[in-house]
Amino acid sequence: MKTRERIIAAVVRAFNEKGYHAFSLADLAQQCSMSRGNLAYHYKYKEDILDDIAVQLDKEIKSFFEKRKGYPAFYNLSLDIQTCRHLQKNYPFVFRDMSVLEHDSIKEVMTKWSKAVIKRNLEAFAYGIEIGNLKPEPFDGLYYQLSVNTWMITYYWVAQEAVREVGNLEEAEKMAWAVIIPHFTEAGMQAFFKYYGADYVKNLGIPIQQFIDLKHLI
């Protein structure tokens, strides 16, 4: 492993554990088992390290993108969700800190990626309508909103997990599909079941009937 790669790996581990602002450059040198001067030779400022982390993020996003199918498919939505979960697992400090997200190089990567995901969602929904798997748009803009909502569910998954403390009881992918499934036609549902299996929708969450039955106790 090259020196800069070793530095980035150690710094990402440190940031993930305690956050970006918890470390000075001297602290990071200690995390990298080197002198501050040696670290400064490679990175004069902490912000310079973020720039190289942004490059690494971009490379990992592109590696997932290369696995996409060349046409709208359930697989592609799942892959976009997997991409997001991969980044959240390996770089949680990025998603938890708005000051990091606002850093120019990080923001550029995240903005480009997010816009691409939303655009791909729209393309998939348009294709779904054309082939009869999705219902026609009942009013202008609904599928645009759905494209953004689907992205938001996965993008902010780490933050909501921390706030709600649900652990592994819920899945980002199921949450995303839960907002899309009501817009499927019968043909769309059959295509969905063919890909995921009919059992996929049997455990989306707490049945609403449970709340209806117990509402007198609330």
Question: Taking all residues together, what is the mean pLDDT?
Answer: 91
Low-confidence stretches: none
What is the class of the largest domain in the CATH system? Mainly Alpha
Main sheet makeup = none
CATH H level of the largest domain: which superfamily? Tetracycline Repressor, domain 2
Please provide the count of β strands: 0
Tally of discrete structural domains: 2
CATH architecture of the largest domain: Orthogonal Bundle
SSE run: HHHHHHHHHHHHH
Please tell me what the overall shape is. Answer: elongated
Give the C-alpha Rg: 21 Å
Number of helices: 13
Give the strand content: under 5%
CA-to-CA gap between the ends?
59 Å
Helix fraction? 55-70%
Structural class: mainly alpha
CATH fold annotation of the largest domain? Tetracycline Repressor, domain 2
Q: Could you please describe the fold and organization of this structure?
A:
It contains 13 helices and no strands. With 218 residues, it is mostly helical. The protein folds into two domains: 1-44, Arc Repressor Mutant, subunit A (Orthogonal Bundle), CATH 1.10.10.60; 51-217, Tetracycline Repressor, domain 2 (Orthogonal Bundle). Helix 9 (142-155) packs antiparallel against helix 11 (172-180).
Short description:
The protein is mostly helical and 218 residues long.
Keywords:
single chain; 218 residues; mainly alpha; elongated; Tetracycline Repressor, domain 2; Arc Repressor Mutant, subunit A
